[in-house]
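Entry type: protein chain
Record version: 2
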Amino acid sequence: MKSRVVGIFVDGVVVTLGLLSLLAPFIFPWARNSSAQGASFPIMVSLIIILCLLVAFYEAQTSVLESKMIAFLGILIAINAGLRFLENAIPGPAGFSPTFFLIILMGYFFGSRIGFLMGSMTMLVSGLITGGVGPWLPGQMITAGWVGQSAALLIPIIKLIHIKDKPAEIILLAIFGAFWGLLYGAIMNLWFWPFLAASPDLIWTQSAHFSENLQRYTAYYTSTSLVWDVTRAIGNILVISVMAKPVIKIFERFQRRFSFDYTQKTNA
């Protein structure tokens, strides 16, 4: 019970901090002026990376068997970071990325905290490999972490409607991937949108009300990012449809090999 409470608290802190950081132009307009830019990003980077490490340490200390889970996670993070390197070296169509399906499947099969680690650490490691370290990195880490973290919500839904090991299970995972294909881009735009120099009806204005800035952002998003994100969503559907079943079977073999049910322990 105590472990569950601590886990929920850690998840809550990560989600709250990330939301406050990325939604600052809407809820804290004064926090996104140009003079605050230099100080806010280094602090945000440090806090998010420390939170990711705290989650990792918390997961690693629970038992000897679960240390094997951490080793397995590390291998998959390396594979996913390698896929992201290939994505940068050989760009695919528009916003397509092969990295999200593993993040989603890890969160779905092993639970929210493992899913969060898979997403956030994939972005950190791949950023170091590709030289993609910059003010956008904390946003990528926290958002990709949310992709894996939220995938755990599918576990009780699929059990409730009795579609485990049925084609509908893969369909639901593919729909979830499409949803995050769009939402990931919409969230990631927020780290630079407040500082954008563009048409007055597309940019953030400090004196504007919440609804006005939301309308401006919606107009900016639909005119600049929507096509890229639709391509990412379609890519997620295709990759998950093809890869989900064999990858889940690999996860099941790993689970049987080490004789423990990690999902039940993390979501009990």
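Comment: Residues 173 and 240 are 7 Å apart (CA to CA).
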